[in-house]
Every structure is written in structure tokens, then in C-alpha cells.
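TLC domain-containing protein
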Amino acid sequence: MVPILAGLALTGSIFFPCSFLIFTFLLRKWVGIQSRAVQTAVAMRLTSVLQAVMASVCGWYIVTNCYHDFLYARCWLVDIYMSFGLPYMLYDIGAMYASYHRDAEAKQNAIISKKLTFVPFLNRQKLIITHHLLVAFVGYPIALFYRNGKGDFFLGCILLTELSSPFVNLRAILKKFNRTGSNLYRINNALILLIFFLCRILIFPSLSGFTAGTNKSNWFQVPWMILGTAP
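Predicted C-alpha cells:
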């Protein structure tokens, strides 16, 4: 099983950078965007949308196949997508830095050494970089090796939180093209608020409370039940 998961991780490490490069090419050749800073920023956002759509679809499939047993139901797709999607976290750090560097060059209208932009990038994006590294090197091992076969449903819910990401990225793209006054921008902002609230705020206390009631335990015990260490 481990060689298969490693192969999936390798596939993901190729897929996401290649998607970024393809989007960059299409933006230059088909859309006609010549600014390398805009190409990089929009390609990064489109790759993020692609990942979010895949994660959300997988999350929905997992949830609908495991809802009958929150704790013990298994779904074959969990380990597969977790392994395939893992490299995205590391790729995204690189893509964010590439976008930051291109923006710096565009603002100064000059080629800048990467040494001059790397530390400022780390300082500016330290929270999201920390998040990505924690997911990759803490969350992934826990999800794959320390759950004792429990909690697939909740991992599906975690993947469903990505449902808001396409709208967040669309807002960033519209800003890049100075479309903040458009109706599309306003509608998209409303959808961000709604979907973010449902998928990233409301979902987990609701599910934890329901699951705790089903298993006659306190809601704060649910994560520990998944790890097999509930008090």
C-alpha cells in the first residue's frame, strides 16, 4: 500500500506544477496576457481552483458514502486523494513565491535577484506557509497512519471545506483585472460569505455535536475518538 500512496504523491507532485505551467501558457497564447506577473498570479489561482474542485468532489463522494456511520465507515478514495493532494501544499508555497517575485519585478520594472524577495515573502506569507507545512507534515501523517481506520467521514468534510476556495480565487482574479465594480464581483463576494460560513465554520460544530449525540459522548471527545484516545 505504501508504494501505491508514494506513487500517487509523485503523480500529484507532477500534476500541480504542470497544471500551473499549462495555465500560464494558455493565458499567454490564447488569452493574450503578456505580463509575466499577471500570468503567474492568475495561473496560480486557476491551479488552486482546479485543486479545490477536485477536493470538493472527492469530499462529497466520501461524505455521501460514509454518512451512515460517522466513525467507522470507510471509503477507498480517502487515502488516494490525501496522497495525491499532499504535494499541492508544497507546490502552492512555490507558486505563491513565484507570483510574489514576479509582482516585485513588475513594480520595479527590472529583473530582481530571488535573494532579495525570498525573505520578504516568508515574512509576508508566514501564516499560510505555516498552515501548508503543518498540513503536509503533521495533518497528512495523522490522517493516513494514526486514525486506526476511523473518521473517513470527517476527512471528507475537511475536503468539502475547499468548496469556498474557487470563489476566493475568482475574487482575486477579478481584482487582478480591475473588475471590483462589476456585478460578478459583488455576487461572488456574497457567495464567499455564504459558502465560507457553511463549509468552514458551521459544518464542524454541527457534525461534532450530532456525532457526539449519536455516540453518547461529549462533542470535544469526537477528534480523540477518531484517534482512539478518547478519555
